[in-house]
Design a protein that fits this description.
four-stranded antiparallel beta sheet; 29% helix; 123 residues; Nuclear Transport Factor 2, Chain: A; YqzG/YhdC family protein; elongated; alpha+beta; DUF3889; single chain
Length: 123
C-alpha cells in the first residue's frame, strides 16, 4: 500500500508532495533541536516510518486539505506481535480546520503495515 507524491505530467510539483516535504523538514528541525538540547527522549524516531504513512494516507483521503500540524500520540503494544502508532493531524480545507486521528497498525517482527484507521474530529 504505497502512494507517492511527485511531479505531475505537466512537470509541476503536486501539493501533497510539498506538504510531505514541509512536514519532514519540520520533524527534522524539531528532532535536531531536541538533540542539541540534550533531550534524547524527544528525539525518538522509532515512529518516523509510520508517521510518513499516516501523513500519506491522510493526504490520500483529504487531497484538497493542507496539513497544518501533526503530533505523535504514542505507541501501544498489542497481542499477537502487533503494535499501533497513533497520530493527530490538523488539516485546513477551505474555511474549515479540523483534526484527524490516525492509527497505524503494524507487525513488529516483520515491520509490515497491517492497517490504517482514521477518525475525524472537529477540534
Amino acid at each position: 500500500m504505497s502512494r507517492h507524491y511527485s511531479k505531475s505530467a505537466t512537470g509541476k510539483v503536486r501539493p501533497g508532495f510539498l506538504v510531505a516535504c514541509i512536514a519532514l523538514l519540520a520533524a527534522a528541525v524539531w528532532i535536531g533541536l531536541a538533540v542539541r538540547a540534550g533531550r534524547a527522549d524527544a528525539a525518538d524516531t522509532t515512529y518516523h516510518k509510520w508517521s510518513l504513512i499516516a501523513i500519506e494516507e491522510t493526504k490520500h483521503k483529504y487531497p484538497k486539505a493542507a496539513l497544518v500540524d501533526y503530533s505523535h500520540i504514542g505507541r501501544t503494544q498489542l497481542e499477537g506481535g502487533l503494535s499501533e502508532e497513533k497520530f493527530k493531524l490538523w488539516l485546513r480545507q477551505a474555511d474549515r480546520e479540523f483534526g484527524v486521528y490516525v492509527t497505524v497498525r503494524f507487525s513488529d517482527a516483520e515491520d509490515r503495515l497491517v492497517s490504517v484507521d482514521m477518525r475525524e474530529t472537529p477540534r
